[in-house]
Amino acid sequence: MRTVGIIGLGHVGVTTAYTMVTKGLADTLILIDQDGERAQAEHLDLADAQGGLATYTKLLVNDYDALKTADVVIFAAGDISQVGAGGNRNGETVSTKKAIDDVAPKLQASGFAGVLIDISNPCDVAVNYWQQKLGWAKHRILGTGTGLDTYRMRRAVAETLNVNVADVRGYNLGEHGASQFTAWSTVYVNSTPISAFAGIDYDQLAETSREGGFAIFKSKHYTNYGIATIACDMASAVLSDARRVFPCACWDDAQQISIGHLATVGATGIIDNPTLVLPEDEQAKYQASADTIKHNLATMNSFD
Amino acid sequence: MRTVGIIGLGHVGVTTAYTMVTKGLADTLILIDQDGERAQAEHLDLADAQGGLATYTKLLVNDYDALKTADVVIFAAGDISQVGAGGNRNGETVSTKKAIDDVAPKLQASGFAGVLIDISNPCDVAVNYWQQKLGWAKHRILGTGTGLDTYRMRRAVAETLNVNVADVRGYNLGEHGASQFTAWSTVYVNSTPISAFAGIDYDQLAETSREGGFAIFKSKHYTNYGIATIACDMASAVLSDARRVFPCACWDDAQQISIGHLATVGATGIIDNPTLVLPEDEQAKYQASADTIKHNLATMNSFD
Amino acid sequence: MRTVGIIGLGHVGVTTAYTMVTKGLADTLILIDQDGERAQAEHLDLADAQGGLATYTKLLVNDYDALKTADVVIFAAGDISQVGAGGNRNGETVSTKKAIDDVAPKLQASGFAGVLIDISNPCDVAVNYWQQKLGWAKHRILGTGTGLDTYRMRRAVAETLNVNVADVRGYNLGEHGASQFTAWSTVYVNSTPISAFAGIDYDQLAETSREGGFAIFKSKHYTNYGIATIACDMASAVLSDARRVFPCACWDDAQQISIGHLATVGATGIIDNPTLVLPEDEQAKYQASADTIKHNLATMNSFD
Amino acid sequence: MRTVGIIGLGHVGVTTAYTMVTKGLADTLILIDQDGERAQAEHLDLADAQGGLATYTKLLVNDYDALKTADVVIFAAGDISQVGAGGNRNGETVSTKKAIDDVAPKLQASGFAGVLIDISNPCDVAVNYWQQKLGWAKHRILGTGTGLDTYRMRRAVAETLNVNVADVRGYNLGEHGASQFTAWSTVYVNSTPISAFAGIDYDQLAETSREGGFAIFKSKHYTNYGIATIACDMASAVLSDARRVFPCACWDDAQQISIGHLATVGATGIIDNPTLVLPEDEQAKYQASADTIKHNLATMNSFD
């Protein structure tokens, strides 16, 4: 049975739960939030939503013990109000650290033996911090990272070239934050490299994917739909051992840090990391992004 | 092509949009909100969510003209902050009236010739008010009404008897509000009338479905998942001409008012209203609920 | 992970496999057939079908060892050519017995610890024979039985009353064969008993559901779509522990035989059998059907 | 409403119908076959399959008039028994021509104004013959062509490199027959050109995709699952105006023949043909394949 825990029932966590329920992506869903009444309220709303479905998802609430047999835990706790006016995800560094410090021992104690997917920001730093805290095999912990930025970049390219997003391939890499970059060398539209298309404003497109979240955030004060679908896509790859490739926040042995790069996602988490041969300028951006994450991780570690 | 307009992109409207996008229930979705930046932000978030889907939904923003060829318009504008501390949906009477007054001429002008599904509260009153305002054939305008309360009642019965909600049938009727009632004479579990089960606390169960929304509302300040799925189920019945039966807020010729009762939903809206022979006590509750709606409609009409 | 084995890749078995692949109902599918080339060919065709899917199903071929961790095995081996000109499913008694005799020890040896769902005909007799052969707890073995006839009856009622099949409830019970019957006392349309509708030709409708397969069989020489969907529905109820109620061929302790009656299907197979209080004439038909199955089981046992 | 006609209810046509019904891809399905009893039998089997679905598809049988408002017609008539022992699809040239000669005037008379998707073989020749016969704007007629071979090539590459088929891109082009070729210059795995992977046996892989159907055909005597899914994918692109890119059998203005090459598929059929810059050897293969189709079209035209 596909068992998924979701810790943190803010907009992102509960939208992820709703997506799993309505699309039949999980058989048991364990909903966890420090606010017990909120968890119970979301549980009722999700239960109501099952009235017309052909699939069934068992819903449990605030039951850490049930995580023992879970395949995936999605960590979505966070405090979006900490994001700065400029949309800097590092604003959440302190609140996310506190949430991880609170949850990590409970997760450890539950006997959970599956794959942890972190959504909480700053995502790459959080993944590294989880890895420090839990000491598990690195492949068991990953973050949605630039998976979402990648969907945003593809959407922006699709709009520009008037094609379907499904026909655009390629990746955003590095930090799920300001230091990320679109690896244009990896972007293809119908197997034609994007460099073959005239009149592309690369800076504008990269900006759109990097800042896409903040365009939404400014008016809505959070984003939830894009991120929930990428989280569901990664979780589903674990649950069905699909061995699908995503740009995930995960361990890079060469950099000795977890950072957004290509990863094959399957039953045990990160199965392997496909090689991408990047041109020098993209390599440099990747290196700079890794340095940024290291610096931000040190900052997170410096807080008590 | 299945074309759906959603007017009002609060939690309910946009969750309905997200459900349609992720489940591939519409081919074109026209997102309309008086806050243009918000509409644009939700559009971007929903567009991001299409990055991993096998289906495709075209998204248009604030384009009333596009409603000309729409099959369904879902009206979800409202001001949840107007709901009283006790959870009385009539608190929205003024704000919903204003929203309808604002939207009705635009909808009329668009040339929209499809089916209007009202979610906004007070739902029954709103349906009646829409019918007054637009003067369309009655079958073209319906509300989700006690469809949601019905899902809640089934969920409550399912939990009590430890069965799957799909195996519970029966309906909540009347006002989507305090005067509604569970028509227990219509409730069956695996084709066995609920009266055959021992130890049922009917008042408690009816309370759960009637007040289910407020249990959620108290902690979350709105409900969106249950209502979005019932709205999608009704819209899908129109889009595929499924002729499925729901308890909808729609015209009751005997009562000369729109009120929640059984309706066959298909391409032209309400196809017909299947007869339910209710026992006297349930008939009396229905009559009382109709009177309540008439009274509340008069109240809505009395505001300028 | 949801792991399903399908043994017997004739039209029914492979259509069941295809449904699971295209709807994402299983994570691993183990395809087994005595004709290894055929199994390989179906495997390739199903693998090709995954080229455009958002879900992933791992396909294994003729790997009995893999059944050790399977949740469900669907047995669909049979020799449709043995069905008589009149469409008598007992024509398959000898061929199905041989197939079970062949497969049972392999299934036993595999260490399979899940739920066995028999589709092969004569279905009720086959379930009983499996139970004799394997000696497992009775709840682990069930057959699709009158589940399909129930769908056919509902379809026939829906067509007659011009309603959606989803709004018709009620069951066909007894043998998945000539002695079955529609339990009209259980049939409701929108919570109204069918007896309240005028002009129903019950004999004609019962005939349609009982003989529905043969109307198809006569021209097509097999039926596969209805049966594949009911098999998938039952398997999904096991995989998600949905505790949904179906009329299944399963053990009736009072009759000391497996026969089609209501059953709650969940992770361990038959969770319980909801009580249905039938009127005397329907009870008599059920008894007669049980006697028929006992007689036919004796016949199956009499063959070497 | 999404309305689809399927003409020819052999294994391929009816599997396509079943996929549309179970996945909710069409709202109305018009099933047409010269064998009226067979059409009725398939209709019943498909209707039975709707007993447990959350979606609804209206089924009509042998109703050419209903095609007047259809969005898509899928032509799947053919006589698989005419395929030679070596699996040559040209064996069907005579029978397919006769089927088109029979159906074309009826389709014309129906007033059908949508998009025709030909599955029948020899697919490219059939598309050209349809275009001659009907005289419609070229963009309204296309064939599944090398869409299926493309899925097969991707599957073969995925198996060889142990990756998910969804992460393999690239196309088979030319005739859906022996003269087709894999355009290796278009094949990428996770945005890395296949030429960067060591130890690839290109001839073997190309052979697998070209001859993939016959590996299945040899044992099963037909293939249906892969082809049904690609047909559904193309039909869905029309129905939702998805503007997705497939290698389709469609008009190539430079070659003055319909042949498998990239096409953007949307509401009006072929929206445009994205440019692929192929290396010389692949261009030569494309030219040779175009010549083959021209020759085979002349052959088809030479029969009475």
Automatic annotation (TrEMBL), chains A, B, C, D:
Top-rank lineage group of the source organism: Bacteria
Residues reported to bind NAD(+): G8, L9, G10, H11, V12, G13, D33, I119, S120, N121
Annotated ranges, domain Lactate/malate dehydrogenase N-terminal: 4-143
Start and end residues of each Lactate/malate dehydrogenase C-terminal domain: 146-303
GO MF annotation list: L-lactate dehydrogenase (NAD+) activity
Active site: H176 (proton acceptor)
Family: Belongs to the LDH/MDH superfamily. LDH family.
The species this protein was found in: Lacticaseibacillus manihotivorans DSM 13343 = JCM 12514
Keyword annotations from UniProtKB, A to Z: NAD, Oxidoreductase
GO biological process, one term: lactate metabolic process
InterPro entries assigned: L-lactate/malate_DH, Lactate/malate_DH_C, Lactate/malate_DH_N, Lactate_DH/Glyco_Ohase_4_C, NAD(P)-bd_dom_sf
Entry protein name: L-2-hydroxyisocaproate dehydrogenase
